[in-house]
Batch of 4 targets.
Target 1
Amino acid sequence: MGRSRAPYGLEVIQSCLSCPVREDSLFCQLGPEALAELNAITQTSVYPKGAVLFVEGQRAHGLFVLCSGKVKLTISSPQGRSLIVRVADPGEVLGLSAVTSNVSYEVSTETLETSQVNFLPRDEFLRFLQSYGEVGLRVARHLSMELHRAYHQLARIGLAPTTRAKLADLLLDRASGDTEAELKGVCFQLPLTHEEIGELIGCSRETVSRLLNDFRRKGLIDVERSLITLLDPAKLKAFLT
């Protein structure tokens, strides 16, 4: 199986064996036999922007592999206040910790753009996990990466010296991913409203708008709709100290 077109004009990946993010995903870097069995228990769906995959407190009935698109993860207070934990990129596995721990989902998830998401039912996935030792190792590595990202987000919100530093750190983080490549001139999509960016770094929409405009006037970034280009990452990094 290869790829086909689905509603919303998205090119659908029909098999884990031909996944273009396979080399980037900790979860998908498995042997051919394990990948073939994983593919057999996978249910593929394409979601429009704004679709909810699961909600905080819901019983974990399975996990979701993000094949393409972006998804925001949020938590909410009893008073209705919400906070964006992070934005997930292609190759990430959502709901993994809840499924392996047999607890409710810790966050709510919503697509930020048209996305292909593969669903693995909980019981079938756990049987698959018991059959392949290499899968257990990949799961442990993925959970460790999730914990690392959670620590980073906590440090960004709680320890950054200023709101300017929080926003600069977010932009640098989204531009670099997990690499340490040269960031000058790097372009990336940040499909969030200014209000959602505020939820991600713990400030108001007005503050985000003011800081983005300030960064642009100073020649640190260029903004074209949701596309951001880093023009002077060194100066952005200087805000972090």
Note: The CA atoms of residues 26 and 141 lie 7 Å apart.
Target 2
Amino acid sequence: MQPEIKTTTLKMTQYLIKAPQLQKATVSLPASKSISNRALIIHALSGGQQMPQNLSDCDDTKVILAALRDMPDEINIKAAGTAMRFMTAYLSVMEGTHVLTGTARMKERPIGILVDALRKLGADIDYVGEEGYPPLRITGQPLQGGELEIEGSVSSQYISALLMIGPALEKGLELKLTGDIISRPYIDLTLWMMREYGADAEWTANDTITVKPKPYMNHDYMIENDWSGASYWYEILALSDNREAEVTLNGLMDGSKQGDSVIKYIFSLLGVKTVFQSKTSGQPQNVTLKHNGRCVPKLEYDFVNSPDLAQTVIVACAALDIPFHFKGLATLKIKETDRIEAMKREMRKLGYVLHDRNDSELIWDGERCEPSMEEGIDTYNDHRMALSFAPFAMKSGSLLINNPQVVTKSYPSFWQSLREAGFEVIVISE
């Protein structure tokens, strides 16, 4: 009996991805995870009844939705880093005591900077386990607010978490960001959404944000679809040999506040043109991706404001034989996995040798090695590993993805969308 038990324990799901000769595909994108998660917290703080429309159905959003609905004594946000940060701040200003916990990996992801900041505002937060890491015991209470300093180089989710509770603080919040400010577009997205809900929140200096103690107002809110999700279709089109191929994506805005909308610029350098259905800015619409036939000979880019796009662009550039030097990747080391190490390891399986520098840069100078794709691409419980590598099948013809179900964290319908675009997605073990 022992061998049988061992086999069951080690059994792993794999998908074999076989790419089509891409012609024309129309894709229904998921709703934006970033906007959905912020909208839920702001909506809860507004005390209103009208839920945001077009909420994401990804894992991260579901755990926030369930936590806000049920408010149990112990809230398990699983692997959702955004939920951990946003809920830490939210629970600090809401009456009651709760333990906030997550997966084993979540208990390794630092939270001390946010906890220290909230404690300076008067929050009652204790560490249940290791100092500086989840789980947290949070007893919510009214907070005075006032002036606060935090490093601008920390995760923008810490900053957004603090900003969103600003209107609920008795004195509001004056938040000064010291040093370099990373992921500024995500901060701007938070401020924009807060203002959409009636908050008085704005940059009052280059390094200072002021949030006045003016309550949120609940109202109808429509969530835009996800530019991060769109990035994988940019990659697919870029790797297509058919110069006449087109991909149409729905529900995206020209002039979007999502930081990852910069993907349209990055892929314009990699041979993809973005065509909006109309010139109306600020309204969700269809976007068609087409080949423009021009690629840069080498790509240098700083991902400090859009780190979640890095994996997509790394795989795309290598597949297109475009050497690269990417900076601004420091936060990749504290994501669902150490993405810098994971990318180096998995890219070697495809035959590409990447080098890292300063724990914040990745370089490919064209160095190749013997591919070893038979064992499949490991995903490390990281949705973006599966999502960014799957399009490589456009170059290799087929590709094995291990534990592909991780995509539910941000893009649950991804594999079905691939099938609808003509890909074969074959379950070869489960």
Note: DSSP finds 14 helices and 19 strands in the chain.
Target 3
Amino acid sequence: MIDKNIVKKYVEEWLQDKDYFLVDIEISADNRIVVEIDHADGVWIEDCVELSRYIEDHLDREKEDFELEVGSAGLGQPFKVVQQYKNFIGKDVEVLCTDGKKMKGVLSSVDEPMFTVTVEEKVKEEGKKRPVIQAVEHTFNMNEVKYCKYLINFK
């Protein structure tokens, strides 16, 4: 099986001096390599092709055959690395807590490993009969939620 650290080394070499960042590398038992990269402004297919060729040029198919897929972290997929959180500050996100509760709000800040989501909620104010809608901040640990992902709006 191809060593994940070797693939990571080649990806990091290619990423030097570029605004892209590594999201994930997965290697299956049958040497199917999947590399996900991302960029604040989106990923260009030409760059995926260039990275794929770079990795292929450095791995030896004669020694060990493999299948390689290089792509972008999908829009609307759960965030995997801190840079993804930072890229979506000010955007609508959905958080699935470990207790199964979902929250939708605006990702307002990121201070690794914590992030804050501002949610519009009904809050009962003292002395008032009806609850009022207020912006309430909820802070989470990135490692203690099932996921946080960008909410795509078609408005």
Note: The longest strand covers residues 102-111.
Target 4
Amino acid sequence: MLYRVAPLALIAIALPATAQEQKPEREPLRTRVYIGPQLSPKTPGAKDLSFGPFFEVSRARGDDPFEFEAPDESFGFPVVKAGGVEFGPALGFKGKRKATDIGIPLHEVGFSFEIGGFAQTYLARNIRVRAEARQAVSGHDGLVGELSADYIARDGDKWLVSIGPRVTLADARYHRAWYGITAADSAASGLAQFNPDGGIEGVGLAAGYLRQLNKRIGISAYARYDHLVGDAGRSPYVRSAGSRSQPSVGLALSYTFGGQ
């Protein structure tokens, strides 16, 4: 709309030089978006892998490096910081499970949308620890959580490598949805009935890698391995048709918007 340009230009010319030379109060915002594919178990406990989206968004101001985010953590962002600890929301989801997905006639689990929060802090400059909990409002309807720690090596935004342990926990409702065998399941599949309790679902290790190829374009990759333990690992479904090994890998390209 060219008719708006001329009046604005005249106003700008009329402003004192000192006003035009003033720097903005805040540095310009940069936004980095990662998108690509990932391979992960079709459903918890499944032996087959399926493709899904690997997506992440990060923001930073000016020349400040982007804050570290583990590639396998739930979507969320810090909103409160107190005493060196950051708190924020955490969102997660798990796809639905049908008998055809796992090759055995067990009960269906609907799409699960999980809402919760996290707390994280740095024990040292390169060591971050994080805890999160999410309650499903659909699907499995259970409570799931994760404890994680990451060692981080980086050169600003040029490259970053992270690695650290993972422990996943869940309540009985979650475990019964994914690993339980009801009477109807037993009759249809021939597996023994199984009514698991809550506790540790799995232990694992995750690693991530980021590299900026130029000012705008970058790459990201991650790998994670979890081993089911406790009642999850003892499930007749996991033992007969699933797997205690739960690997995941992802690869993405990034593009950075904004900045100078």
Note: Residues 5-14 form the longest helix (10 residues).
